[in-house]
């Protein structure tokens, strides 16, 4: 059906974006079969590391170690008191908790943590996964799977029950960022490596990667990289990328996902909350994607300053797919600015957002908040076309939104979307 008025257009776009099921291409969520790795519930929501950093700003007299020695419930109580009772929760991470509680139907006027806790105790993980994915309209989530994590490896070892809503991503940060300690972990897993990157060690790293690809069937191989990431580089990281990551991902036909721009542990006392951001050299991205045109790359960058040049680089390299507004960029003002710019430069050949959820319930807020902004930007873009005399069919808008919600990702991978089969 052709859309005749601007009002109709706006209503249809908002409705379509709000209801289109998404593929969430980067999360830290896990299927139920991974046991304790799947986090959910109010105490997990409140102790999200984004909220720990915010709480500490209001508690200058609380020693970090005292905070870490508290139980999870005590930490959650303190965070709730500090960020939700003593102040209004309008930061994006705080607002997220409010959205989640609201979407789960809680009475927010009571602000009664124990009532929320009682609810989470009364449901099973399985029921909760189903409820959240349905409410958030998320059909598939991509996990972050770490073969260097002992607990996680044990889950893979005992043969994990498949839930096709949860797809794997092989995350290899220790291999590229901490070789001086991770080489011995490879050795412990039975690979004949030495710290020195000789031919045999490089062959064994490739064998390690291929074994885990076989085991996990990951959609991509991923790493987060520091803001001073350089390429090419005569370094351990540069050598492993060229000699192992590039040939193995190409042979497996999977993208190499680079998440660039993190400064790890600028405040180690904050633990997971202690990482920061730095501007990176886009030249490194340009050089690696153009050197390997037969490899596929998924790239997101953490600094706001890198966003425009990253989108331009994607225009020049069709093997590069830009994704998401990552971590410190996952705020409404920045999502809007970045999404607008990307759609203007790249049309629909981009993945506007991923959630980075660490706690299942966060799917509700991360996607609600992002959908509202994506819809707003699309209304403007279609509105401009309307003013220029272009008339759209409902089916065309539906197609575009499906592409932005995961279609573009699956086409880039060259795999069918499992949720459609
Ligand atoms: O956004 C986050 O929660 C960060 O702590 C990181 O997990 C980051 O997204 C990453 O994947 O390294
Ligand atoms: Zn992440």
TrEMBL record:
Highest taxon in the source lineage: Bacteria
Keywords: Isomerase
A molecular function (GO) term: isomerase activity
Keyword Isomerase: yes
Protein name: Glucuronate isomerase
Source organism: Paenibacillus residui
